[in-house]
Amino acid sequence: MFMIGIMVERLTASLRLADERFHRGFLESPIGLVLLDSDVRILELNPAFAAILERHADDLVGHDLHDHIHVDDRARGRRTYQAALDRSSPVSFQERYVRSDGAIRTVSVHAHPQQREAYMGKYLFCQGARRE
Questions:
Q1: Is 81 exposed, middle or buried (0-12, 13-18, 19+ CB in 10 A)?
Q2: CATH code for 31-131?
Q3: Residue 96, phi-psi category: left (phi > 0), alpha (psi -120 to 50), beta (remainder)
Q4: What radius of gyration, in Å, describes the C-alpha atoms of the chain?
Q5: CA-closest candidate to residue 77, choices 54, 100, 93
Q6: Do the bridges between strand 104-116 and strand 42-45 make them parallel or antiparallel, or are there none, so unpaired?
Q7: Do 84 and 127 meet the contact criterion of CB atoms below 8 Å apart?
Q8: Contact indicator for 61, 43 with CB cutoff of 8 Å
Q9: Most CB contacts within 10 A, which of 20, 116, 123, 129?
Q10: What is d(CA 112, CA 114) in angstroms, rounded to the nearest whole number?
Q11: Could you tell me the sign of the dihedral formed by the alpha carbons of 7, 12, 16, 19, in that order?
Q12: CB count, 10 Å around CB of 113?
């Protein structure tokens, strides 16, 4: 029983370290990264993604990402994100984001569905690289 306790402690420490490494890499990445729930609300984003929108990250968490997508791209974006979740397979596409000053940024997006209990079910891990 003692050995099981030691193994559980080591496994827990390893998982904590892996999570810390992921989170540090997420925040420090020069590529825009965002985690979206199944309703495409922003759970978490890194500074590079906030810079694409020229907004503060704290102002974006909890908001529907589609509120920041160009109106002409919203319907297609909703279908694309939903298809990724339904099929549990990644999708790549381009969409235009509207910055806080009204300027448009075209972004290449790669959305990869994930499942993790910490986010209460399915969520999307998205990478966005600006295209000028």
A1: buried
A2: 3.30.450.20
A3: beta
A4: 17
A5: 93
A6: unpaired
A7: no
A8: yes
A9: 123
A10: 6
A11: positive
A12: 21
Phi, psi of 36 (to 5 degrees): -120, 140
Quickly list DSSP for 78-123. HHHHHHHHHHT--EEEEEEEE-TTS-EEEEEEEEEEEEEGGGTEEE
User: CA 106 to CA 31: how far, in whole Å?
Assistant: 14
pLDDT of residue 11: 80
Q: Are 34 and 129 in contact (CB under 8 A)?
A: no
Residue 19 near residue 31, CB atoms below 8 Å:
no
Is there a contact between 42 and 36 (Cβ–Cβ < 8 Å)? yes
Question: What is the Cα–Cα distance from 107 to 132, expressed in whole angstroms?
Answer: 8
Place of tokens 């907004």: 55
* Top-confidence range, 5-9, 59-63, 111-115, 120-124: 59-63
